Amino acid sequence: MSPSEKKVYRIAAIPGDGIGVDITEAAVKVLDKVAETNGTFSFTYTTFDWSSKAYLQRGYYMPDDWATQLRAHDAIYFGAVGWPDVPDHISLWQMILPIRQQMNQYVNVRPTRILRGTRAPVSQLQEKPGDLDWIIVRENSEGEYAGQGGTTHGHAENAVATELAIFTRVGIERIMRFAFETAKGRPRRKLTMVTKSNAQRHGMVLWDRVFYEVAKEYEGVVEHDKMLVDAMTVRMVNKPESMDTIVATNLHADILSDLAAALAGSIGIAPSSNLDPTRKNPSMFEPIHGSAPDIAGQGIANPVGAFWSAAEMVRWLGKGELDTVADQLMQAIENVTGEPKTRTRDMGGSAGTEEVTAAVCAEIGKVCGKQ
Description:
Blueprint: E1 7-16, H1 19-38, E2 41-47, H2 52-58, H3 66-70, E3 75-80, H4 88-102, E4 107-113, H5 123-127, E5 133-139, E6 143-152, E7 160-166, H6 169-184, E8 190-195, H7 203-215, E9 223-228, H8 229-238, E10 245-248, H9 250-263, E11 271-275, E12 283-287, H10 304-318, H11 323-337, H12 353-367
Parallel strand pairs: 1-2, 1-3, 3-12, 5-10, 8-9, 8-10
Antiparallel strand pairs: 4-5, 4-11, 6-7, 11-12
Helix pairs in contact: 1-10, 1-12, 6-7, 8-9, 10-11, 11-12
């Protein structure tokens, strides 16, 4: 295939802070190796320095026309944001949440399973790693992260702060429908809905009601059940094999997916996708581990979560045509995690970021070249 016939995917790269810079660089190397080996597509990148360091220098993370700039791309690849010199709520509300909300990325998908060579902290999962194989579907646009509320007399002893969780029928219905469709496409066809409607008697009662309304459309197709979020943490640890696809609110899924990553062996391997299912805006792909200031710049960050996120980006961009390529990338990743000499410290090894990246690129040449 000639270069002019290749599909070119335009990627907006936002390395951000800390280890986000290292793992984004690593992900780009892996993506380019996948594209080179496959030969039917390629990537071009525009890198945006929307970091905390830049924020401290100029007073803002993103310029006024940031949305226009991002919409010129097919997807967004994001590293991490957050630095001790900038309060977390500033970095969150001046970059990540505006992107998710204005790009209509109302679905956050977080797959979790135990990769080959990963040691799970729970004995049951060490013996039967296949018991943990979940897709967590997180409502990504409203709920507890809607931004409604305020502070009165903030600098006084009688300060009052309110934080309102917003739940709309439209927002709930679309995430439930996405979750049921996701479950429908999985082998077990099972969906667990997480709630706290016993205590949150308005928004979460509506959350439950809409779930059961949508569930009627999938009777006989998708098995479903309901769990209170506190009981869900116990079930995730004690009976991981009893779940497959999980749908939860913005806050609940954020917390539960970190627990899921820990159960799977390391938060460093966990990916996520922020999706606009309408495809009118670019979707964003990122590992969930954060900027990790304590290990930033040391070359020891685990890039596996970044690679897995890259695989999900390839899958999304291909609209079904690149599923095999994404699967091959995941095979290459597991070939590397399966070898003790190419595991990072958080996975019980001693390999650095560059060493793991080089190993994955070498495996891509072997795995993706078998076509």
